[in-house]
Design goal:
Blueprint (H helix, E strand, L loop, with lengths): L6 E6 L3 H11 L4 E7 L13 E2 L2 H6 L3 E4 L4 H13 L4 E3 L2 H12 L4 E3 L4 H14 L3 E9 L8 H11 L3 H8 L2 H14 L11 E3 L2 H15 L3 E7 L11 E6 L5 H6 L8 E5 L8 H9 L14 E7 L8 E2 L8 E7 L15 E3 L14 E2 L4 H13 L1
Parallel strand pairs: 1-2, 1-4, 2-3, 4-5, 5-6, 7-9, 8-9
Antiparallel strand pairs: 7-10, 10-11, 12-14, 13-15, 15-16
Helix pairs in contact: 3-4, 4-8, 4-12, 5-8, 6-7
Length: about 375
């Protein structure tokens, strides 16, 4: 595509990621933010005509669109228009991919960016495959897990960390990491070893990764999973990812020399990810014709089901903004529960009859609003059965 011109980048979303990406692009010589699609009042933004409510305005002024809104029900509708117009899409939104990403991938180019854990794993995987490693575990790292955090706790941490209550709650109760690892499994050809993942609590990354690698060998396929840092560990896990691999045993002395251990499994750790700061790397790759880094694939085998956190009474309305205080997400093979409702579709739904704590919600348990996202999921499901 363009080689010497400044790329015009449209952004969907004005939250933590979208605002950070705007600041990042403003520092770069080869691209500019042309439009930002927002649902907020335009008077909230004093910087003139960059922000818009019009999808058509976004399309007409962009060479590529970056989606980081985080609400798959809303943004699927938007991206259908963007992709119908022939624009490539870069995302930082694993929940979108596991909900409607397969449907969108049939419409055109859509890829997750480097920067968050799924993109970091995809980039690391590409490098390892190029030199002949055989992945066994695509691993994420989690420092803390609380399945039922309180609103007061989450409000405190949201303010402290500068992100939304919804984001911090999904991270705390494990929903975020379940979504990410399902996305990685579908995109990189791995499987979910068990509902909810193994998530071994570990003192040491290498020790835990070895346990996951043994599970992968038992299953006979690479797995996507995570490790939970033991509260007794002397050092906290970094905000990174790892891939545990095998290699030709003739190189075992070399790997031992490189302090990767005695084998036969070797854990390759990337100890950081830079969120929105890395999105321009993927933008350039897409605009230079290098294709997809990671998407949900055309035949996904895993999804993220919805688990009740407490008794849900008939008539209860679950809105997007308070969703994570009612339910959480768990990774699951689609074949194990094809009628589950994905966590990404829990958006202004109404509970039809009593649901018990720990119960997986199925479509017959809720009234779901008609939406492009709902029909996209049904289309995806019909293609994988």
């Amino acid at each position: 595509m363009k080689s010497k011109e400044i790329y015009k980048i449209g952004i969907i979303g004005t939250g933590f990621i979208g605002s950070g990406l705007q600041r990042t692009i403003d520092r770069l010589p080869d691209m500019e933010v042309s439009r930002i699609l927002t649902q907020r009042d335009l008077t909230d933004f004093p910087d003139g005509g960059v922000h818009t409510h019009s999808v058509q305005d976004l399309i007409e002024h962009s060479d590529l669109v970056v989606e980081c809104n985080g609400n798959p029900v809303y943004v699927t509708e938007v991206l259908c228009q963007v992709m119908d117009a022939g624009l490539p899409v870069v995302t930082m939104d694993a929940e979108l991919h596991v909900t409607t990403g397969t449907y969108l991938a049939e419409k055109g180019l859509i890829t997750e960016a480097e920067g968050d854990q799924p993109g970091a794993l995809a980039a690391l995987n590409r490098k390892l495959l190029e030199v002949g490693f055989k992945p066994l575990v695509y691993g994420n790292l989690k420092g803390f897990l609380n399945l039922t955090p309180t609103p007061d706790e989450m409000a405190y941490w949201a303010e402290k960390q500068g992100i939304s209550v919804e984001q911090v709650t999904g991270a705390t109760d494990g929903t975020k990491i379940q979504i990410e690892q399902v996305f990685v499994a579908n995109g990189l050809g791995a499987v979910i070893g068990k509902q909810g993942l193994y998530g071994y609590e570990s003192m040491d990354i290498s020790e835990g990764a070895q346990k996951l690698a043994l599970r992968a060998k038992e299953i006979g396929q690479p797995i996507s999973d995570y490790l939970l840092c033991s509260q007794k560990a002397k050092r906290r896990f970094p905000a990174g990812v790892f891939i545990t691999v095998e290699y030709d045993s003739v190189e075992a002395p070399t790997f031992e020399y490189l302090k990767l251990g005695e084998g036969p499994f070797y854990t390759m750790l990337q100890s950081f990810h830079l969120i929105y700061l890395e999105i321009p790397v993927t933008i350039r790759q897409v605009l230079q014709g290098k294709g997809v880094l990671l998407n949900n694939g055309l035949k996904p085998k895993a999804s993220v089901c919805t688990i009740a956190k407490h008794v849900l009474k008939p008539g209860t309305v679950i809105k997007r903004e308070d969703r994570n205080f009612h339910v959480r997400g768990e990774a699951i093979p689609i074949a194990d529960a094809p009628n589950h409702i994905p966590i990404g579709l829990i958006y202004d739904v109404v509970i039809k009859h009593k649901v018990e704590p720990g119960q997986m919600l199925a479509f017959e348990d809720v009234e779901v609003q008609e939406s492009k996202a709902y029909h996209a999921w049904k289309d995806t499901l019909s293609g994988v059965r």
